[in-house]
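Sequence only, no structure available. Ideas?
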Amino acid sequence: MNETKAIIEALIFASETPLAEEKIAAILKEQGIERQDVRACIEELAATYRERQGGFILQEVAGGYQFRTRPELALWIGKLKTTRPAALTAAAMETLAIVAYRQPVVKAEVDRLRGVDTGRPLRTLLERKLVRILGRKDVPGKPMIYGTTKKFLEVFGLKDLSELPTLGELKDLMA
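Reply:
I predicted one. Tokens follow.
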């Protein structure tokens, strides 16, 4: 089991994106390791990192697992990184919120909810791979349908969309 944990730890560490449990199980299948064994190893690894209180944790995010720095160390990480990624404009954040909560959604619906044209913010979100085109709606004009991406989940540290705060929670935050 220790070697299996080491292999799983190395796979997650080497992966550029969150690594799904199914993918790990597929890689280890020829070793006779079952998916429930993979799950048990991941849970043990996550517990070990939590208890250790080191610089990083093993976190479930965007349908997979990824090593991440502990949130309470963000101040120190910020001192290391002198350049910050370009922040999203308020218009892009509002547009992203509408897409996240209303998906699948067409641009006309986003425009209606924001009260302005959202063409530029949508392009920005597409370029940053936070939003993707899911297809076209089967209505006259065949408008594109938008939804969020796995990168959206990664950036916001969400396992899946069910972890988005409810509208009631958002109202409480704003109060």
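Residues 90-174 form a domain with the Arc Repressor Mutant, subunit A fold (CATH 1.10.10.10).
Hope that gets you unstuck.
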